[in-house]
TrEMBL record:
Family: Belongs to the type II topoisomerase GyrA/ParC subunit family.
Region described as Disordered: 823-863
Note: Few gyrases are as efficient as E.coli at forming negative supercoils. Not all organisms have 2 type II topoisomerases; in organisms with a single type II topoisomerase this enzyme also has to decatenate newly replicated chromosomes.
Active site: 129
Sequence ranges assigned to domain Topo IIA-type catalytic in this UniProt record: 41-503
Name listed for the protein in its UniProt record: DNA gyrase subunit A
Gene: gyrA
Regions of compositional bias (Acidic residues) in chain numbering: 824-851
Protein's job: A type II topoisomerase that negatively supercoils closed circular double-stranded (ds) DNA in an ATP-dependent manner to modulate DNA topology and maintain chromosomes in an underwound state. Negative supercoiling favors strand separation, and DNA replication, transcription, recombination and repair, all of which involve strand separation. Also able to catalyze the interconversion of other topological isomers of dsDNA rings, including catenanes and knotted rings. Type II topoisomerases break and join 2 DNA strands simultaneously in an ATP-dependent manner.
Length: 863
């Protein structure tokens, strides 16, 4: 009985162990290189991945040329799978389809017949239903492949061979671009215009030391198949010089008028954007009311793109177009990575290196083709030389052949007597009798002379690098003339983001916010100027129990700083506020600003920018706390807001003003008390601080309702050439609709923190403003009435007077806020139906408000 081997038996030998880490590492590296080299990345020489190359070569072998009949795609897929590509049929067919899609390929390589999908994302029909053949441009990629121009390698089953690269008479990699994801790397090469790429290639041939900046002038950027706009050159220059960059593309949206209505026609979309998904996205935005002013959306596209967007009357097309660019794929980014295989190794290259790879490849192809043709020509010349010897000694040749017993004996006898090679002798023995006539002899002589000229030319090409490069240039010129076409994509010299300022006019507008938090932007032209005491026009589309709580006028290009009741500050561009008509309700603030729970807007300030080092912001709260902060401290604002002031429990921020640092501050309370103190009484504080007492309130019910900057009336005569600054007065309006103007000098300067003095004889104050004789004011009531009236009709009275009627109030209505409209010299006036004037407010108009909101001061500028 044989001894059983056990693990404990010392005679038992174990195999040596191998670390699983080493096995996995080796396997993963092998897999990675297989994916990189044999599947995912294109070759820098012909710009093709292996599967693309195999498809084109298989179609050539099948005879599917551009001037031949179509054949089933199923046959092509089967041929590729059978001989060249050991993978799934879907990978082959999907690649074949992409090579034929004109919205994917700038220069398609396959002519399709049947359903090959669409730009809307529709997939192609099954390959048993579709047909294809090669485009002429693809045949030129394969041209001369049988002349020993490229290396052939065994196929996967070693039953045949396939080309390792195509001769590529065109620079296909840059011409059509490529996309691929390998292991640990990816490539994303955009298509370019063939004319420009060939010109750049020729420029490198002429001057190998040419600078990248010179090449960039020849190739300004990508040229996408669907056209459209490319915004900015910085991303283009980046990828052309380094191999990486981001190109921003936009579709083409034009405004046309149709039957009295304005329409936006989208005639081109960015590269690789699904057209159907774009239309669905636009429809969703309309449904969500994220984009206002669109009445209808239609996709009228066929082979060409045509998306029609009908606009509502009064909508601003440029604003809607910009919203489409911002919120839909109508504007997209294309991240460029110029990564390709160079000598079977992945390499990120700039534009010159990539074209140099192609030039080196074409130099090798032309050299090998020339050598092949030379060998062929020399072989033919060698035979013709034998023919000449035979024709010169025809009778003797015939005698020797007749005397020989067989072909081999005749060959040996001829080679022994005459200086003939075996090849020449074999050719002579295969001559037909008619070729021995005099006419045929002349043809042989003519052919030999022509052949010797060809041989001389071929030898000169092989011996001269300059001549070889000239051949490359000539053939590229022929390709340019044959396939070149104009650029489709337009490159605009706009670096960085194309902001709304580029397409939105800089004009005055009114911003209103209701008690329930609805916000809108309205043109000032919609408000009619009326005489004092008028009924006004409806100024807000408030619904039941809602009313206008804040109003503000500014330029569309300004920044608006939103100060919350809890002291937090948000910053937005004016044009980001949705536009609405005078009677529209507006949009919820929560959809515009990322408000936190319980926040309400207490004040607003409009500024051009945050770089003014001498400007301050003074804040005031209901309990009389004031604080001064540098405007530049708000420069680094963010979408989520930042702290503007620390608020005591039970207190709320009510107003903010922009100051010069040396102004006087005026606070007005609801109980008609006021205090004036110099701004220098307030020290500069950081944003996240509390502030100090500005006014001492006499009762718990009293609270600060307005903060104003004091502008003293000018004194003395102006200097020669100096304009007289308009005299400024303080307008105070009561909730009962009465108001008055008062000299600032009636409010004496006091120390900060006192109880103040009486401001107006009224039970309740609605607001206060610094005004001039030529100003107009806007008044809003609790029930939503808006009245615009000139200020010069308001009487100038003493500090303790009641004033005159500013607006006729309906029963149980009251004045809740006033604002000032500063008109420019370009304002045009006309009569309205009620006998009032219509005033246009230009882009420089600014509104100052006192209904717990504020605006940029133009009154603290020195003449």
């Amino acid at each position: 009985m044989s001894e059983e081997l056990t693990p404990h038996n010392p005679e038992h030998t174990r195999p040596e162990g191998t670390s699983i880490i080493d096995i996995m590492q080796t396997a993963y590296i092998d897999y990675s290189m297989s994916v990189i080299v044999s599947r995912a990345l294109p070759d820098a020489r012909d710009g093709l991945k292996p599967v693309q190359r195999r498809i084109l070569y298989a179609m050539l072998r099948e005879g599917l040329l551009h001037n031949r009949p179509f054949d089933k795609c199923a046959g092509v897929v089967g041929e590729v799978l059978k001989n060249y590509h050991p993978h799934g049929d879907s990978s082959v067919y999907d690649t074949l389809v992409r090579l034929a899609q004109h919205w994917v390929m700038r220069y398609p390589l396959i002519i399709p017949q049947g359903n090959f999908g669409s730009i809307d994302g529709d997939s192609a029909a099954a390959y048993r239903y579709t047909e294809c053949k090669l485009e002429g441009i693809a045949e030129d990629l394969l041209k001369d492949i049988d002349e020993d121009t490229v290396d052939f390698v065994p196929n996967y089953k070693e039953s045949s061979t396939e080309p390792s690269v195509l001769p590529a008479a065109l620079p296909n990699l840059l011409m059509n671009g490529s996309t691929g994801i390998a292991v640990g790397m990816t490539t994303n090469i955009p298509p370019h215009n063939l004319n420009e790429v060939i010109d750049a290639t020729v420029a490198i041939i002429d001057n190998p030391k040419i600078e990248l900046d010179e090449l960039i002038k020849i190739i300004p950027g990508p040229d996408f198949p669907g056209g459209g706009f490319i915004h900015g050159k910085s991303g283009i220059e980046s990828y052309l010089k380094t191999g990486r960059g981001i190109v921003r593309t936009r579709g083409i949206a034009e405004v046309v008028e149709n039957k009295g209505k304005e329409e936006i026609i989208i005639s081109a979309i960015p590269y690789n954007v699904n057209r159907a998904s774009l239309v669905i996205r636009i429809a969703d935005l309309i449904k969500e009311k994220a984009i206002d002013g669109i009445s209808d959306l239609r996709d009228e596209s066929t082979e060409t793109t045509r998306i029609v967007i009908e606009l509502k009357r009064g909508a601003i097309p440029r604003v809607i177009i910009n919203q489409l660019y911002k919120s839909t794929p109508l504007e997209s980014s294309f991240g460029v990575i110029l990564l390709a295989l160079d000598n079977r190794r992945p390499k990120q290259m700039n534009i010159k290196e990539m074209l140099t790879c192609y030039i080196d490849h074409r130099r090798d192809v032309i050299y090998r083709r020339t050598a092949f043709r030379l060998r062929k020509a020399e072989a033919r010349a060698h035979i013709l030389e034998g023919y000449k010897i035979a024709l010169d000694n025809l009778d003797d040749f015939v005698k020797i052949i007749r005397a020989s017993k067989n072909r081999e004996e005749a060959k040996q006898e001829l080679m022994a007597k005459y200086p003939l090679s075996e090849i020449q002798t074999t050719a002579i023995l295969e001559l037909r009798l008619y070729q021995l006539t005099g006419m045929e002899r002349g043809k042989i002589e003519e052919e030999y002379l022509a052949l010797m000229a060809v041989i001389e030319e071929l030898r000169s090409i092989l011996e001269s690098e300059q001549k070889l490069l000239m051949v490359i240039k000539e053939e590229l010129g022929q390709m340019k003339e044959k396939y070149g076409n104009p650029r489709r994509s337009t490159i605009l010299s706009i670096d960085g983001d194309l902001s709304m300022e580029d397409i939105i006019p800089n004009e005055g507008c009114m911003i209103t916010i209701t008690h329930k938090g609805f916000m809108k932007r309205t043109s000032l032209d919609e408000y009619r100027s009326q005489k004092r005491g008028g009924k006004g026009v409806i100024g807000s589309g408030q619904y039941e129990d809602d009313f206008v709580e804040h109003l503000f006028t500014a330029s569309t290009h300004d920044y608006i700083m939103f100060f919350m009741n809890n002291g937090r500050v948000y910053v937005e561009k004016v044009y980001h506020i949705p536009e609405g008509s005078r009677t529209a309700k507006g949009r919820a603030i929560a959809n515009i600003i990322e408000l936190q729970a319980g926040e309400k807007i207490a004040a607003m300030i409009c500024v051009k920018d945050f770089n003014e080092s001498d400007q301050r912001i003074v804040l005031a709260t209901e309990r009389g706390v004031t604080k001064k902060t540098l405007l530049s401290d708000y420069k680094n604002h963010r979408k989520g807001g930042l702290i503007g002031i620390n608020i005591d429990e039970g207190d709320n921020l009510i107003g903010a003003r922009l100051t010069s640092g040396n102004d006087d501050i005026l606070l007005v309370t609801s109980n008609a008390q006021s205090i004036r103190f110099p701004e220098t009484d307030l020290r500069d504080q950081g944003r996240a601080t509390r502030g100090v007492r500005g006014i001492k309130l006499k009762t718990e019910a009293d609270k600060v309702v307005a903060i104003e900057i004091v502008n003293p009336s000018p004194t003395g005569e102006p200097a020669e050439g100096e304009e007289t600054e308009p005299k400024k007065l303080l307008l105070i309006a009561g909730a009962n609709g009465l108001g008055k103007r008062t000299e600032f000098s009636d409010y004496r300067v006091q120390s900060r923190g006192g109880s103040g003095i009486i401001a107006i004889k009224s039970d309740k104050v609605a607001g206060a403003l610094s005004v001039t004789e030529t100003d107009e004011i806007m008044m809003f009531t609790k029930k939503g009435q808006a009245v615009r009236s000139p200020i010069n009709t308001v009487r100038v009275t003493g500090r303790a007077a009641s004033g005159v009627k500013l607006v006729n109030l309906a029963d149980k209505d009251e004045l809740i806020g006033i604002s000032k409209v500063i008109a420019t010299e370009e304002d045009q006036s006309g009569e309205d139906a009620e006998g009032g004037e219509v005033t246009d407010v230009e882009t420089s108009d600014v509104v100052e408000t006192t209904d717990d909101s504020s605006a940029q001061q133009d009154t603290n500028e020195e003449s």
